[in-house]
Amino acid sequence: MRRLILSLTIVLLPLLLGGCRFSWTLNGAALDYNVYKTVSIANFPIRTALVYPPLQTIFENELLNYVSRNTRLQVIDPPADIQIEGEITGYELTPQAVTQDALASQTRLTIRVHVIYTDNKVPDKSFDQDFSAYKDFDSSEMLTDVQDNLCQLISEDLVIQIFNATLGDW
How far apart are CA 25 and CA 8, in angstroms? Predict the structure, then answer.
């Protein structure tokens, strides 16, 4: 009897599960690749009072690389199924953690990005949104010494936020 039940289970289980589709990704991408095939990522010009020119390249490269690594979308020039564009709207330094002698022991670098996400397949998913991220550094350090690393780390944070809001469909 056990052998019969086991044999039936082995034969029927694949038939029952054949109609089911399970989809799970570790990167969070929730795209239907039957619908979405292409993405366009435009330049993100810097529109801030304080300008650090390498930031544009750092951010754009991080965004492009992250999308390429975590989706199967082909990156093309517009028009595409999905278009991501925007601008860097904030690059600010603010003192943090004031000490007893009224000096800041930490300084915060905050970067803000305005993103325009256009979904040409499902227009209701399109949006304009601002994203921001920051990192603190010791005020005894010169900004010029830590700026490249901070911009890279902040860009990584921003890209994850943008990816989750757009292609990750969170």
Answer: 32
